[in-house]
Amino acid sequence: DIMSKIKAAYPNDECEGWPFKLPEAEAILAGATGSMPYIDAEFAGSGTLYASREDLARKVLENNSTFKAVSGFINGQQTAMYHKLEDLAATKGVTAKTILGMPVEYVLPEGLLTQGGES
Which of 63, 58, 52 lies closest to 27 in space, CA to CA? Predict the structure, then answer.
């Protein structure tokens, strides 16, 4: 399935960490200077990958935004295909072979997945 391919571009630990990382990343980029347990720990563990916790916070928000954009794009296509399938199924005289032969095709938004990556 197409979402499995999209999720493969993002490690599970990244996606599972978003509920914790996103509020911290947003707070950091809004100027918060206090402790941010998840981001601070990830930053400390990342060595020299990020110049600052603000850089990490930007990457977290960028990756999450890209993931949501791609997911939304795919979900929009799925909804359109479901409506086409419903219309086809409601057509008088349509056969099961015709319904089963309906093409299922997805187009990925150009360039978005190349921005993803672990944060």
Answer: 58
First to last CA, the chain: 24
Q: What is the token pair recorded at 86?
A: 């419903």
Confirm whether pTM is higher than 0.90.
Answer: no
CA 56 to chain centre: 17
d(CA 14, CA 81): 30
The DSSP string of 51-71 is SSHHHHHHHHHHHHHHHHHHH
Write out pLDDT tens, residues 62-93.
Answer: 999 988 888 888 889 889 988 988 998 898 99
98: its two tokens:
């015709």
Contacts 24+ apart (CB under 8 A), 52-57: 53/28, 54/28, 54/29, 56/25, 56/119, 57/24, 57/25, 57/26, 57/28, 57/29
